[in-house]
Specification:
Layout lengths: L11 H6 L12 E9 L17 H13 L2 E5 H6 L9 H9 L7 E5 L18 E5 L5 H7 L3 E5 L7 H10 L4 E4 L3 H9 L5 E7 L22 E8 L5 E7 L1
Parallel strand pairs: 1-6, 1-7, 2-3, 2-6, 3-4, 4-5
Antiparallel strand pairs: 7-9, 8-9
Length: 246
């Protein structure tokens, strides 16, 4: 059995402190995935969005993980489905990040093989340029179109080479990474054994059939062993678990 303290037994500050990134050295990065699901494993609610599964305590952790990261990585499909906008932080967090040697706000990195993104969407409406990662075979007209509002990086020939992407980010000093899905991107990262840590929130709800799984992919994926690093139950009955690759 594992202790499941509520907020009264373990203050939020103590819980959140457990999510600090470990030291990384030698040009390496640390890739953390953060996902929420229902008790029966659905990662989207009846409206087809993961946001409808989120609870008040999950939203606190969601924002905290963003505040810690150098970059937020998301698949293009999830960015569209969830109506992603700029990654924002409050003024106090900006100063904390600057004191830590980070950029004022986390970098937003969108992975898209086809570049089927609308340059006029709110995704590109913030003060910081978004980084869009695609492959070299993508139509050049699409690259030029998105290049008006984003920094486009091409890695891999016919598919996005995720290891090369992470390596380029690390070379630029962007090493503390947070991936927010979706399931297809997580499946590709898992297939390449690139995920170091999984923060899995279990929302106190049942959704039923037809919803996506947390990790999806078209090819067989390797079995990756995990070790449980932490488990906490919040007062709103949300269960937070933290796993590291064994």
């Amino acid at each position: 059995m594992f202790p499941l303290p509520g907020a009264a037994d373990q203050p939020w500050d103590a819980v959140l402190a457990q999510y600090d990134y470990p030291p990384v050295a030698g040009g390496r990065w640390w890739l953390r995935a953060n996902m929420v699901s229902s008790v029966d494993g659905a990662v989207t609610g009846p409206d087809g969005r993961s946001g409808s599964l989120s609870t008040p305590s999950d939203r606190v952790l969601f924002q905290h993980l963003r505040r810690l990261s150098d970059a937020v990585i998301v698949g293009a499909g999830t960015a569209r489905d969830e109506n992603y906008g700029p990654v924002t932080v409050d003024d106090a967090t900006v100063q904390v990040r600057l004191d830590r040697g980070q950029a004022a706000r986390p970098r937003l990195v969108v992975v898209s093989r086809t570049l089927s993104l609308d340059p006029g969407s709110r995704l590109f409406s913030g003060p910081d340029r978004v980084t869009v990662v695609t492959c070299r075979s993508t139509d050049w007209n699409a690259v030029e179109r998105l290049g008006q509002v984003a920094d486009v990086i091409r890695v891999g020939e016919t598919h996005v080479d995720l290891a090369e992407m992470l390596g380029q980010l690390a070379d630029q000093g962007t090493r503390e990474l947070l991936c927010e899905g979706g399931p297809s991107l997580l499946g590709d990262l898992l297939a390449d054994r690139l995920i170091d840590e999984l923060c899995w929130t279990v929302a106190p709800t049942l959704v039923g059939g037809g919803a996506h799984r947390m990790v999806e992919g078209s090819s067989p994926e390797p079995v990756v062993g995990l070790s449980l690093e932490g488990m906490v139950r919040a007062d709103d009955a949300t269960l937070f678990t933290r796993w590291r690759r064994a």
